[in-house]
Amino acid sequence: MNNEWPLWEIFIRGQHGMSHRHVGSLHAPDAEMAIKNARDVYTRRNEGVSIWVVEANNISASSPSDKGPLYEPSESKVYRHPTFFDIPGEVGAM
Amino acid sequence: MYAQMIKTAGTGVKSREEMSEQERAFQDKIDADIKIEPKDWMPDDYRATLIRQIGQHAHSEIVGQLPEGNWITRAPTLERKAILLAKVQDEAGHGLYLYCAAETLGVSRDEITEMLLDGRMKYSSIFNYPTLNWADIGAVGWLVDGAAIMNQVPLQRTSFGPYSRAMIRICKEESFHQRQGYDAIRKMAEGTPEQRKMAQDAMNRFWYPSLMMFGPSDKESVHSAQSMAWKIKINTNDELRQKFVDQTVPQAEYLGLTIPDPDLKWNEERGHYDFSEPDWSEFFDVIKGNGPCNVDRLAARNKAWDDGKWVRDGLLAHARKKRGAKVAAE
Amino acid sequence: MTRDEAFLQFLLRMGDNTLILGHRVSEWCGHAPVLEEDIALANTALDLIGQTQMWLSLAGEIDGGKSADDLAFLRDAWDFRNVLLVEVPNGDFGRTLMRQFLFDAWHSIMLGRLMTSSDERVAAIAAKASKEVTYHLERSSDTVVGLGDGTEESHARMQEALDYLWPYVGEMFVSDDVDAEMVAAGIASNPSDLREEYDALVGRVLAEATLTTPESRFAHKGGRDGRMHTEHLGHLLTQMQWLQRAYPGATW
If you compute the radius of gyration of chain B from its CA atoms, what whole number of angstroms results? Predict the structure, then answer.
């Protein structure tokens, strides 16, 4: 039997209210130890306050061939990006 | 520079006409600075070369724990001990990030670890040199990390997404390493005559091995050209070595330490320092396994891995029992 | 014994425990069974070194203005006040983690009491250290349970570690004149008062780990009062203090 510890993907939410963000991966025998390992590996500089772990096997990802239909429609909605709009300098920061 | 003499797979850079349609699309993405992600199509040679390069880089971080770890229990103050321990711990973290990046290419951590342990894969030549006095800890941070950073900063822009992200994280953490090294050796260069002697001794032993970290000149190499076209190598070895020398000479002068190269001098015309090449026959000896510490370093890693087997197996067995019990209860 | 003399002894006991254990744990750096454990052990050692700086700085203030480094690097073995448990060699990973667990359990209970110390400086150090040690205990308990209830081999090794270390547990609960003085001043609890809570905590974890707690209550003593350390401490100090001893007066 393969005795390699499973791979986990680690998501951390920092102190500033942003959503959980993928920070990297690590190995652990189970979810509890994955959380502890994540605390030790990925928050050595106080980076986070909340940790999610997901076994890498359980993640479904879009495949490259989907890239067209999944991403192209939003690419045409350039107005979703703030830099689309020209704001006159006189009105200040926006 | 922890990846040395990486053999680039394939036969060199292909012209656009020689490329298949897939290869052309791949190269176009790289030329447009679009990152290659694990599920994207990539040439087999690109994948193979990256596994070698990231793997060697990761192994270097892990073996690199040993020469510095050699002084943790002898650090002269509580603060120095804490700083050194935190630094060596960071190296373990960097190794971990890089192994994870390699895993996205289809090689598991255990597989790639075994390749280090049985000698199929290499690590940087620099870690086969011993740390003999406390100033060596300063020299390793200042010179060795300094040389590594030369390569790691541009690699943040490398074409493979997971590698690039690992490098960004590493560079962020690395910034304190070189500073702590310089600070430690500075204290000694400005200290008692014995401390000065230690600092100069460290300088004498680490200068040329640090220059070797960049590897022999590769400006003529077809392999190198391919890696550069793939953006997994950003600068030539000579460019990086020159940059390192130019940066380090004034730092050594500030400390009043002598760089052990009588031919080192500023070349006004080139705008760079001229310097002596390291002894490349020594470099090849070290690469072949005949450095001062090769045998000890590999033995230490093998021992840690073998002694740890029952721990890895035990914790996994417990996790499986727990999961079994949970499933049974549901 | 004056109150200050007793207070100094108390602070040395706290600081020497974390100093010596931190040193032992740091010996693992680069040699652990798996990278994640290597990183975790280094965090534990770093916390312990940080706590040492706090305890020994305060001890140095009481002791005529010495620095934490003076106390760590320039005392001889008989001046050390750590319990014997923390100075025994690491052994295998199982023994190291079992020792960590047996110490963490005592440490977390002790720090919990010290948070309400009548001495504000002690209470402040305890409050900071307690957060760290709560996590140490969680991690070492989990590992003891995982390895105790893991494979046949890991179980056997953990039982062996427990049997070896158990005679060193009792010293953490011996009370003497120093402790009486600390209790009278409201600075610290009587160590013997911690035993019941300790036994309950340790018993629960060891049972979950399917390990058998030895029945003997025999205790090796001599560390907390410096009367008789193990032979191991001298070797540890030889390494730790070498530079400071060989080059007196240098700054690093």
Answer: 21
Q: For the segment B163-210, what is each residue's pLDDT rounded down to a tens digit?
A: 999 999 999 888 789 889 999 999 999 999 999 999 999 999 999 999
| Interface confidence (ipTM) of the complex | 0.96
pLDDT over threshold 50, residue A73: no
Chain C residues with CB inside 8 Å of A3's CB?
A: none
Of all helices (H) and strands (E), which one includes residue B59? helix B44-63
- Measured between CA atoms, how close is C13 to chain B, in angstroms? 17
Chain A neighbours, 3+ Cβ pairs < 8 A: B, C
Residues of B in contact with A24 (CB under 8 A): 97, 100, 165-166, 169
**A39–C contact, CB cutoff 8 A:** yes
For residue C75, count CB atoms less than 10 angstroms from its CB and return exposed for 0-12, middle for 13-18, buried for 19 or more: middle
Quickly list DSSP for C109-150.
HHHHHHTT-SSHHHHHHHHHHHHHHHHHHHHHHHHHHHHHTS
Is-contact A37 A30, C-beta < 8 A? Answer: no
Give the count of beta carbons closer than 10 Å to the beta carbon of residue A90.
Answer: 5
CB-CB neighbors (< 8 A) of C32 in chain B: 304, 308
Q: Which two tokens stand for residue B3?
A: 């990846």
Q: What are phi and psi of C230, to 5 degrees?
A: -80, 170
A32/C contact by beta carbon, under 8 A: yes
Helices (H), chain C: 3-26, 35-62, 68-73, 84-87, 93-114, 120-148, 152-165, 177-184, 195-208, 231-240, 242-246
Tokens of C7: 């207070």
- β-bridge partners, B199: none
